[in-house]
């Protein structure tokens, strides 16, 4: 018996390769309920909060989610892209996706992006890519340094979706690129050019990484070590002495001890030590977001100047800059080897 397959059936579709960029996520809007929905999903992830569920649930639902969405919503409002009515993180991730798609179009590669928390969800995008004929998909978590709280949970979410598919695409995950020579070169050039464009000469360049509880490091998360290695390699690439660059950790959350030195405390203490001109960048972020634009570029500057600092500059993330996209394309092409 012969049967005709529908024209969009995967058997007769052209087989394509897909690249799925994965980032953290962001609320859909700055109002209380949008921020609450996003934070609830984020802070219910056991890869992010390891406190046992029975203990964490009342803390999250009765305490944190009653006050934090309001506070975070105000912070988001200060950085929101008013023209597009959109979160900068989503605007930039979308621009990165478009730019990479253009670069890989000649190779017939489909590029899309998804968020671990919020929209567009990883499941919906994986299903869309599969429907478009992607039978091989590269997952690229957009975190230069590996952490279970970011890289692993981004991949987990993709595998959760694959778990329910009868016919799965073949999947690869890209490793963290914290020491990739192209990443170091592009990051180093962005620092050199960013500093050269300033109206002052910074005495210190601070690489401020997103923090995490010290406990996670003790349990074996390599993030802390990869952050230090990125900064050392970039400093060596620039040929700068050790005292010209420093590592700090930002965005402390909750009462436990986080990785130190803390960015906020450091910025308050530096002027007392005679360091009054600084430039700060955030190499753990592939796109500028609330943690860089509000916390570092705005709040960090205010506290440094209040503590007696004279000059402060924030050097942006690589975002969708041509050099930043060269770096992402290099990583992607290497990981696609054998598929292209
Ligand atoms: C509570 C623990 C948290 C850990 C551990 C953590 C790790 C981590 N996060 C990023 C990147 C981003 N985090 C962002 C926001 C954000 N992060 C936490 C908490 C932890 N992060 C919270 C509660 C929030 C929400 C904002 C707030 O309420 O303060 C973002 C920005 C999202 C945006 O919308 O702009 C990014 C990106 C990394 C790299 C990391 C690694 C250790
Ligand atoms: Fe975070
Ligand atoms: Fe370490």
TrEMBL record:
Q: Quote the Pfam families the UniProt record gives.
A: Ferrochelatase
EC code: 4.98.1.1
PROSITE patterns in the record: FERROCHELATASE (PS00534)
SUPFAM superfamilies in the record: Chelatase
Task: Please give the pathway this protein is involved in.
Answer: Porphyrin-containing compound metabolism; protoheme biosynthesis; protoheme from protoporphyrin-IX: step 1/1
**UniProt keywords, alphabetically:** Cytoplasm, Heme biosynthesis, Iron, Lyase, Metal-binding, Porphyrin biosynthesis
- Subcellular location, record wording: Cytoplasm
Q: What sections of the sequence does the record tag as coiled-coil?
A: none
The reaction(s) annotated as catalysed by this protein in its Swiss-Prot or TrEMBL entry are: Fe-coproporphyrin III + 2 H(+) = coproporphyrin III + Fe(2+); heme b + 2 H(+) = protoporphyrin IX + Fe(2+)
Question: Which residues are recorded as binding Fe(2+)?
Answer: 210, 291
Keyword flag Electron transport: no
- Gene3D superfamilies, from UniProt? 3.40.50.1400
Q: What family does the database annotate?
A: Belongs to the ferrochelatase family.
> What's this chain's function?
Catalyzes the ferrous insertion into protoporphyrin IX.
Identification of the protein by name: Ferrochelatase
């Amino acid at each position: 018996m012969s049967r005709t397959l529908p024209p969009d059936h995967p058997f007769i579709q052209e087989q394509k390769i897909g690249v799925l960029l994965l980032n953290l996520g962001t609320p859909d809007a700055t109002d209380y309920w949008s921020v609450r929905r996003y934070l609830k999903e984020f802070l219910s992830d056991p890869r992010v909060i390891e406190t046992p569920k029975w203990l964490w649930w009342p803390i999250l639902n009765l305490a944190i989610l009653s006050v934090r969405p309001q506070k975070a919503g105000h912070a988001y409002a200060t950085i929101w892209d008013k023209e597009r009515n959109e979160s900068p993180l989503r605007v930039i991730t979308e621009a990165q996706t478009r730019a990479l798609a253009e670069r890989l179009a000649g190779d017939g590669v489909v590029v899309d992006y998804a968020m671990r928390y919020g929209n567009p969800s990883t499941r919906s995008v994986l299903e869309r890519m599969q429907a478009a004929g992607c039978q091989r998909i590269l997952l690229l978590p957009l975190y230069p340094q590996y952490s279970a709280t970011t890289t692993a949970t981004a991949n987990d979410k993709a595998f959760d979706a694959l778990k329910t598919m009868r016919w799965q695409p073949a999947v690869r995950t890209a490793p963290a690129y914290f020491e990739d020579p192209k990443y170091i070169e592009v990051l180093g050039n962005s620092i050199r050019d960013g500093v050269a464009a300033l109206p002052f000469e910074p005495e210190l360049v601070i690489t401020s990484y997103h923090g995490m509880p010290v406990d996670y490091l003790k349990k074996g998360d390599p993030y802390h070590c990869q952050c230090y290695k990125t900064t050392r390699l970039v400093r060596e690439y620039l040929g700068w002495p050790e005292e010209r660059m420093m590592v700090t950790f930002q965005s402390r959350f909750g009462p436990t001890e986080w990785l130190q030195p803390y960015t906020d405390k450091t910025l308050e203490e530096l002027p007392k030590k005679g360091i009054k001109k600084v430039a700060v960048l955030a190499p753990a972020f592939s796109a500028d977001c609330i943690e860089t634009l509000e916390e570092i570029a705005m709040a960090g500057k205010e506290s440094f100047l209040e503590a007696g600092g004279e000059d402060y500059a924030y050097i942006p993330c690589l975002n969708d800059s041509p050099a930043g996209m060269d770096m992402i394309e290099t990583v992607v092409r290497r990981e696609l080897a054998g598929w292209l």
